[in-house]
Amino acid sequence: MKYAGKKLLSMLATLLGVSFLVFFAFDVIPGDPALAQLGTNATPERLEALREEMGLNAPFFQRYFQWIAAFFTGDFGTSYSYHIPVGDMILEKLPISVFMTLMAFVMVLVISIPLGILSAKHEGGKLDTVICTVNQVLMSVPPFFSGMLITLLFGIVLRWFTPGGFVSLEQDAGAFFGYLFFPALAIALPKAAMAVKMLRSSLVTELGKDYPRTAYSRGNTKNQVLRNHVLKNALIPVLTFFGMALTDILTGSIIVEQVFGIPGLGRILLTSIMNRDYPVVEAIIMFMAIIVIVVNFLVDLLYRRLDPQINME
Amino acid sequence: MALLEIRHLDITFLDKKKPQKIVEDLHLTIEAGDMIGLVGESGSGKTMSALAVAGLLRQKNVQISGEILLDGKNLLTCSPQELRQLQGSEISMIFQEPMTSLNPTRTIGWQVEESLRLHTNLTPEERKARAMEALHDVELSDAERIYHAYPHALSGGQRQRVMIAAAMICRPKLLLADEPTTALDVTVQKQMIALLQKMNQTYGTAVLFISHDLALVRSLCSKMVVLQQGRAVEAGDAEEIFTSPRQLYTKELLAAVPKFERQPCQRLQTDAPTVLQVSDLCAYYPKESKRLFQKKEQKEVLHNITFSIKKGEIIGLVGESGCGKSTLARSILGLHRDYIGEIRHCTEHPQIVFQDAGSSLNPAKTVDWILQEPLRNCTQLTPGQRKDCVTEMLWLVKLDESLRSRYPWQLSGGQRQRVCIAASLMLHPEFLIADEPVSALDVTVQKQILALMQEIVRETGVSILLISHDLRVVYQMCDRVLVMKDGSIVEAGAAEEIYQDPQHDYTKKLLESAGY
Amino acid sequence: MKRQSTTFWIGAVLAGMVLLFLLVGCFWTPYDPEAMNASMKLAGVSSAHPMGCDAFGRDVLSRVMDGGRSTLLVAGGTVLLGAGLGIVIGAITGYFGGLADTILMRIVDALLAFPSVLLALVVVALLGTGEMNVILSLGIAFAPSFARVVRGEFLRSRYLGYVQAARLAGASHFRILFVHILPNIRSVLISALLIGFNNAVLSEAALSYLGIGVQPPQASLGSMLADAQTYLFTEPLLCIFPGAVLILLVLGFGLMGDGLRTGRK
After folding, report:
1. Contact status, residue C66 vs residue C31, Cβ threshold 8 Å
2. What gap in Å lies between CA B362 and CA B408, rounded to an integer?
């Protein structure tokens, strides 16, 4: 538990550092938010009044602490372009991105673990070669292109779904998940390929160690050695990768949303970047960073559960 | 009928471009309850033979012919299912590295019980009872804690005991022991041998004991087989082979084994200048802080070490792993700076020869480049002069000129250690530290390197601090001996005196374990 | 030294062919990649236009060659910047350790918390679009992962016998870092560079697909794919060619990196 506390503190420190970087970065960029809100033909007096009202004249650190304090109370500021609270904008779109990310992540796990084991079991054989080759090709396809190919194949040729025909969760939950399946697959495929490769090489490394030989000498079959001895050890290094995959999928969803015309977080982020709507950009980036940091924290804890050697010290 | 009969065993590895014969025409018979030794240097095929018997060589790239009969059943031709039924129940094996041979993420109990789970129908409670019994059998105190512990929480000796417990739990007829004591300290080694003897006597389990250590095999086994490059060169009664070997190779092997022999004290000039003086040295390592905001603590790993080395002297530093030998060496070299006390030496660049010659030579550079490096950094010599120095040094360590353009990985173990010695002598230091310089080498090579070191001392007058766990090597080589335990020097003096009349209990125990 | 595996050579041939194709594109393209021709709008594959024409009647082959060039430029610049920063930071923190290590690695950890595309988006949001900004943003985004790899290698090497021997042979820290250790970790470095290059290619393509990389009318593989998506129903071939070049390039480098890594064991 001491370890968890230590990690929790370090996680909070990282979060604080990240928030500072984000705030600092958006503070130093040229451009005046007040000007952006009023337009170029505003009078200097009105501009100055708005600056005062928005708290832009306060010292840097005061503004930073105000921002971070507001952030923790759920006040993420107001969008420049839509003049509505940023929090509402994000909350509305969050479920789409979260569901898509989780679906893709589950696909990565479901595809990669059995295939990785199969590939390692037949190391050097025909099946292994086929899996490795397919892997290498899949890893080379950028997710937005695999998204286009999936649209082409399942949407246009096979007509399993209607490209661009996104249905929101409230309208029809079934159709919502049905539609998200294909974009999730597009993000999951390259990640799953990478995961198969990592798991395979980790398994092969473990199989080459001394303790599987001990296991064989007691009369275990290859399947038993893989399942009871090697898998747990091999998963430890791959765990970090799964953590990273989860966060990569989350950011990858920004792009894939674009391919499939899904109005999720990515869509708002991109339009906000184009419109220089900084409060929205800041908030979304902070959101994603928080998710990434929390996932890393959880991976660390899981790591410790799996590996008795770290528990020792 | 014999328990195990090996006939015409050939093992060939097919993975290289041309097939490599590892074992050729091996014959071996083990009667029930026998203890047989299989002796040879590295690459002699002794481990491969054992793996073949254990059924662990059934791979595509290995071709095995001949017969291995266990109770008349041929292990090479039986089905995988039949083989697995025998593995762990009739034949079991223990390995050289108890550290890596246990699964790091499973509890000891789980691993000890594994053979029972695979070969019997016992309930979990019965299995646990048997496992506890087995742990007691191998003289592990605190068996309850160990049952639930993971391997990393145990010492090397405890792990090997666990390996033996797991191997013996189904009461096999044959136990294959592949260098089970090599990775362990001498005092632990002795206990492990006693344990194997006890298992053999209590349960009548036959043991095939594989070792490079002839003396060990002699003390343990009734019969032995000597292997050289995959062929059995001599086989028969262990005592007989040891006292009157017939084959040339066996004779060489026996001659190379370090013994408690030494030339009578050659040179102990009391008026020689002192080249190294260590006074009241205490060294520290930072301790991992347990609590979050705790102040960093330091752990004292060396306590009040005082000794000196005179010119032309070889001093032995003896102790078991973890006693602080390496920290002492690193402090003298200036690689470990966290110490108080005084280290005075007149050499600007103290040098060391490491145990593992392979990793102490830069793999990306040639021998010539490596030997020139100290000169390049510390002298103003021209490239031509440097070349000459290297030539001279190669001659001193008896390496052929043609090796200077080779990379370390193209050299044999002995050649590498010679290069290391040469590199350490390039700047003509007054003294050098040799940290277990021969313990990774085969006995015949070991003998050559030790002779070379003695010759170098005679010729150059360099002093050597020889760190070793092998009391015989130290006895042969050294004028004076320091015995170290838990960071302190417990006894120091002339080699003869210490070996003849040890004062400290620990020294006595060490000498007894080494069979002095 | 040791022979490289066949995987490495297959990758090298593949990557070499694509590179050659794109290199030619730097000096010569069959048509002006930006010249529009209304009569050739969405013209199919023909002997005059082996990859057809896009919605503005521009020759796709010429645009692929030209767009690949800018992809290479951005990816190359990114790797140079990222690897340069990463190697220096990694070498210093890994070898010396101590306070500098703690501080720099904290920053690296914080930066690693941003996935690279997200970080690039932030920088583009701050500095605006364009080739140089993409290089800068991706370079900064990639530096931490390089630093991680390099630091690990130096940390491991620091305790090896030959490094200690080099210290005792009187070598300076600088000499140990760059003369003794660096040649020994080159295969790790090369495969990290190859992986980094691939990630840079993919990220550049993603950014220009989103319309925040290279700006029109200049061609880029990513933006060509974005354009082609509009005509996915009617002209699916339009997306195949730029996509294929992208995949072959990444596949080639990926195989090379893979071959190197397995060859090292």
Report:
1. no
2. 7
User: B4 vs B38, B207, B244, CA distance in Å?
Assistant: 14, 11, 27
For A175-212, what is each residue's pLDDT tens digit?
888 888 989 999 999 999 999 999 999 999 999 999 99
Q: What angle do CA B11, B14, B20 make, to 5 degrees?
A: 60
- Topology of the domain comprising A87-306: MetI-like fold (1.10.3720)
Of B335, B362, B423, the CB nearest to C167: B335
Residue B45 tokens, joined: 């095929």
Q: Which residues are registered as beta bridge partners of B431?
A: B463
| DSSP letter for each residue of B280-348 | EEEEEEEPPPSSTTPPPPEEEEEEEEEEEEETT-EEEEE--TTSSHHHHHHHHHTS---EEEEEEES-S
Residue C219: closest CA among C72, C109, C104, C97: C72
Residues in A closer than 8 angstroms to C124, CB to CB, are 273
**Pair type for strands B274-286 and B298-310:** antiparallel
Cα distances from A60 to residues A54, A73, B289, in angstroms, run 13, 20, 37
Closest CA to B225 of B252, B245, B198: B245
CA distances from B152 to B105, B108, B446 (A): 9, 10, 32
> Which pTM does this prediction carry?
0.84
Q: How far is A199 from chain C (nearest CA, A)?
A: 15
Residues sharing a CB contact under 8 Å with residue B99, sequence separation 6 or more, in sequence order? B151, B156, B159, B183
Which residue in this structure is represented by tokens 């390929």?
A193
Contact B423 C165 (CB under 8 A): yes
Q: B63, B35, B410: which is closest to B238 by C-alpha?
A: B35
> B239-244 — which CB contacts under 8 Å span 24+ positions?
B242/B214, B242/B218
Residue A82, token pair as written in the block: 């839509």
**d(CA C22, nearest CA chain A) in Å:** 18
Closest chain B residue by Cα to residue A123: B60
Identify all chain A residues contacting B108, using CB atoms and an 8 Å cutoff: none
Q: Is the pLDDT of residue A49 over 70?
A: yes
Whether the pLDDT of residue C2 is over 50: the answer is: no
Which tens digit of pLDDT belongs to each residue from B334-345?
888 888 888 888
**Residue B237 DSSP label:** E
Closest CA to C116 of C142, C143, C136: C142
Check CB contact under 8 Å for B359 and C172: no
Question: Which ranges of B87-229 does DSSP label H, i.e. alpha helix?
Answer: 98-101, 108-119, 124-137, 143-148, 156-168, 186-203, 214-220
Residue pair A269/A254 in contact (Cβ under 8 Å)? The answer is yes
| Residue of A170, A163, A181, A167 whose CA lies nearest to A103 | A181
Q: What angle do CA B36, B41, B47 make, to 5 degrees?
A: 55
Query: What residue ranges do the domains of chain A occupy?
Result: 2-71, 87-306
**Would you say residue C129 has pLDDT above 80?**
no
Q: Could you tell me the two tokens for B360?
A: 């102490």
Poorest-pLDDT segment among B287-291, B368-372, B505-509: B287-291
- Any chains having at least 3 CB pairs less than 8 A from chain A are B, C
DSSP bridge pairs for A253: none
Of C124, C80, C81, give the one whose Cα is nearest residue C215.
C124
CA neighbor of C161 nearest in space, from B192, B443, B437, B97: B437
Contact of C52 with C238, CB cutoff 8 Å: yes
Whether the ω angle into residue B258 lies within 30 degrees of 0, i.e. cis, is no
